[in-house]
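User: Let's play a game. I give you a shape written as tokens, and you guess the letters that built it. Ready? Here's round one.
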């Protein structure tokens, strides 16, 4: 963990870079409490990066006086994570929640605005936050901001439609950002820009919110009959972010085909007897993909949109989607093009185990050049897989099924494997995608050529 210079006085600990080039991490949970006296290297918190769960150790011993954030917060690298000092009384739960570390939240907001190319305020050296940002247990919470509220143009437009002063809306987003849900909730509580001062004076005095009509163009979410509310956190949040980025950036198209793997299935059984371990069809599909990418190199690539470049890769670093209790993870088998089926099978087994027990490292989930999703292991046939951006293609293998097949005018009971290939049309033409899939099908249908 590097990239952040820690203070010399040991009064506070800044969130370090938990992986190469990491800008932020989500706080999953604390392993210490305010008032605890901790040892050097003792785990302070668990943080979620792109796909890995990371334990953050304390760089020194001391007494914890403040935990800057709560579970679910996205904290930028370089923000204060923990403060140390002399032991003191542990505050009540309500007070601790109300007096959250606002410096972390404001810094997160600045990082969020920077992501969208918006400059918020003027930063010079250390970020100082006024005490008036902290809520007091005996007072009514108020929205206090210095300068302009943080919100996207679309959210500001929504507030305008509702007739709401966005400066009065409490923000629940990262770093206090005002979201569309915040505006809708504010409107449902019957507070408009004209009524805000009066409402503030009546707060806590039995004021009953009135219903509000949803403005044209706003998204209505029915809040009745709720069985459970599940926040986007941890791996699920990262999955949502990655998939949204992919569909908003890559131009998807999908090609489907089938492969008669009757002969390959017989060869797979022979291999299993020789190695003394049952092999699935997956490593053979992976082998066919690696061979196919050698012939069709434009699919073994990534897009650097920031530089406006398509980067063709010389080696195949194969991502393999793994379903876990925490959500979908995609570990990467590096240099898969130089491996035999048995090695590929072992690589998948090892990385899948790491994903399921959450010991997979961030580095083991980065750098993929092509991804395979084995949807057939869960009963699916054809799919429309979403590209693992910045890669340009992904192959979904469905469940192989017995079918009556014909060859040379004769009928036989065959095993047919459905395949679905999604490509980024900005990089891969439809014809080239179809040719690549045809190459993979031919290799799967000819085990001798595949394994030669």
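Assistant: Ready! My guess for every position:
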């Amino acid at each position: 963990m590097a990239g952040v210079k820690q203070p010399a006085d040991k009064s506070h600990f800044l969130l370090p870079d938990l992986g190469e080039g990491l800008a932020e991490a989500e706080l999953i949970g604390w392993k210490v409490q305010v008032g605890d006296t901790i040892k050097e290297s003792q785990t302070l918190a668990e943080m979620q990066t792109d796909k890995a769960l990371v334990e953050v150790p304390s760089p020194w011993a001391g007494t914890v006086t403040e935990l800057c954030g709560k579970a679910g917060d996205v904290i930028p690298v370089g923000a204060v994570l923990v403060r140390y000092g002399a032991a003191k009384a542990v505050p009540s739960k309500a007070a601790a929640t109300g007096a959250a570390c606002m410096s972390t939240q404001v810094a997160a907001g600045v990082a969020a605005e920077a992501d969208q190319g918006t400059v918020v305020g003027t930063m010079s050296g250390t970020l100082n936050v006024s005490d008036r940002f902290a809520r007091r247990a005996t007072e009514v919470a108020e929205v206090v901001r210095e300068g302009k509220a943080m919100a996207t143009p679309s959210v500001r437009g929504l507030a305008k439609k509702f007739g709401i002063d966005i400066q009065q809306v409490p923000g629940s987003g990262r770093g206090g950002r005002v979201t569309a849900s915040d505006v809708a909730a504010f409107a449902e509580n019957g507070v408009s820009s004209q009524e805000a001062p009066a409402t503030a004076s009546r707060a806590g005095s039995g004021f009953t919110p009135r219903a509000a009509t949803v403005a044209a163009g706003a998204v209505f979410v029915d809040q009745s009959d709720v069985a459970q509310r599940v926040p986007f956190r941890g791996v699920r949040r990262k999955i949502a972010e990655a998939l949204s980025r992919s569909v908003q950036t890559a131009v998807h198209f999908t090609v489907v085909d089938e492969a008669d793997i009757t002969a390959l299935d017989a060869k797979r059984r022979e291999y299993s007897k020789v190695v003394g371990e049952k092999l699935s069809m997956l490593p053979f599909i992976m082998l066919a993909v690696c061979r196919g990418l050698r012939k069709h190199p434009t699919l073994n690539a990534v897009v650097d949109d920031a530089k406006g470049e398509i980067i063709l890769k010389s080696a195949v670093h194969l991502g393999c989607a793994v379903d876990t209790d925490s959500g979908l993870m995609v570990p990467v088998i590096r240099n898969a093009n130089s491996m035999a089926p048995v090695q590929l099978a072992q690589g998948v087994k090892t990385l899948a185990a790491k994903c399921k027990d959450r010991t997979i490292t961030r580095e083991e989930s980065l750098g993929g050049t092509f991804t395979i999703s084995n949807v057939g292991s869960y009963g699916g046939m054809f799919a429309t897989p979403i590209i693992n951006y910045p890669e340009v293609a992904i192959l979904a293998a469905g469940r192989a099924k017995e079918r009556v097949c014909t060859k040379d005018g004769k009928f036989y009971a065959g095993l047919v494997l459905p395949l679905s290939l999604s490509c980024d049309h900005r990089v891969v033409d439809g014809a080239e995608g179809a040719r690549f899939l045809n190459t993979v099908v031919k290799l799967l249908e000819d085990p001798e050529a595949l394994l030669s």
